[in-house]
Amino acid sequence: MKHSKDQQALTSIEHGCFDTAALQDELARALEEDRKYKLTDSMKKRAIHTAASYDEFKNLVACADLKPVSQRELRSFSSSDRSTNLAYRAQTKSNRKLKGKSTPLASLVASVDTPPVTAVDFCRQWRRHLKSAQDRYRYLEITTAERLASIFKSDIDADLLAQIVQVLLINLQSVEETNGNATARANAARFSLEVLHALSY
After folding, report:
1. This model's pTM is above 0.85
2. What b/e readout covers 97-120, taking b as 16+ CB neighbours within 10 angstroms?
């Protein structure tokens, strides 16, 4: 198929028709192939000395024409407002300008008051936004023991479990110190046991 197109281009040149678009396409393809060839060749020469195995060598060569990712691109990729929809991105930027600086605070309050869907959501809120034991205990109450059991059914990080136990102990101590109400103490103790039971299985 490609050969017949090249023949048509040559025939058109012989008959006095000069197809510049076809020549531009061919030149662009040739330049791209040459660029990839040089990058692959250069990577082969480097990888032969650095690769520990053939698979590593093959993978390095396969990635030869990929552009390295910069720090700024990594930061923008990990940001929460990334979108491939350009119209949506433009709309959110204009909305952000209108709302001013109140948007991050509003989204933070909304996300802390919303129960997490996954373990990643829980850990993100717990580590980034909840600093005091009181805030963390409130977040545990919002999450509920049943949801904790569901999102951490496969595994839970030992450090996170220790932090949760510490928050539960601090809350029990504060209830005993500030309030002599037996019902409040019983509720706090029951919730602590429910959370510990949920995270133990």
Report:
1. no
2. eeeeeeeeeeeeeeeeeeebeebe
